[in-house]
Amino acid sequence: MIQAGDPESKGNSKNKKLGSGGNSYMIPAEFNPKLIHTKGALAAARTGDNVNPKKESSGSQFYIVHGKSQTDKQLENYELQKGIKYSVEDANILKTLGIDVGGTGIKSNIVNIESGTLTGEKFKLKTPAPSTPEAIIDCLKSTVENFNWTGKRIGIGFPAVIKNGISLTASNIDAKFINYNIDAEFSTALDCDVTVVNDADAAGIAEMTYGKGKGVQGLVIFITLGTGIGSAVFYNGQLLSNTELGHLKYKKSIFEKYASNYAREFHHLSWKKWAKELDIYLNHLNLILSPDLILIGGGVSKNFDLYKNFLNVPVKVDTASLLNDAG
Length: 327
Known about the structure:
Helix content is 24%, strand content 23%. The chain is α+β, with helices and mostly antiparallel strands. It has 3 domains: 67 residues, no CATH class; 98 residues, 2-Layer Sandwich (Nucleotidyltransferase, domain 5); 108 residues, Nucleotidyltransferase, domain 5 (2-Layer Sandwich). It has a 5-stranded mixed sheet with strand order 8-7-6-9-12. A 5-stranded mixed sheet has the order 15-14-13-18-19, with helices on one face.
């Protein structure tokens, strides 16, 4: 933590020990069981219970928490050491259930939102056909049940343009999701707070927060190569949402019909032949947007070594460090 507010620090000598000074009054105890020491928490300092039985806080000194997140095992050890017990809510305060709804599969796991690490065992379901709202909701309910996550917050990446909680398009998903009140409907069905964003945006945010995009300035294009092609564009770390660059016109259709991983598998293309289409796509992105970095995520990112030598793009192209775990 960072502690400050000692009035004796003003004009003190460099060697003076600080941290015990204060003013003439104290603040009555204000404990709230819903507030715990998570990173960024601001609280008033106080002396120990043995000399401060009322647990009053200093009238001037305060501290800011900047500690790291803890694993479940670390929390258990701390409980044993201190003789305390964290509630389920406290233990899960930095966790959310992340669900990636794709055209062929629905993947989920518990995510520590501070560290970006996955804390559970990945759960997979096949995307139902047809992938109507009712069918998708049934899969989401099965996912919640698998993780015993009833009533807790959920984040969902979804293959559609999402604006103000409404899905405006439907990419590789049933057309009934067009103009669908997705945040409200999913929250009601799952009886919890659900936030839905474009799936590629979600994966891009993860890579820019925890992966190779962290701290990168300029224009970064993150693309996912799976059933389709998703994209997330960032300028100086800020997301330009819902770009859908996989839907740029190409030949008789759009680029994702030729350069997605699904296109490679469907047409039984060699890595070299498929990479030719991907190379055209990446060069087109470079032509119209002049990015400083292109990051590739999605299922095919783990095979980057098999096709990277067939790419000839005048900008750095790299695989996402989170591979297919992002989003």
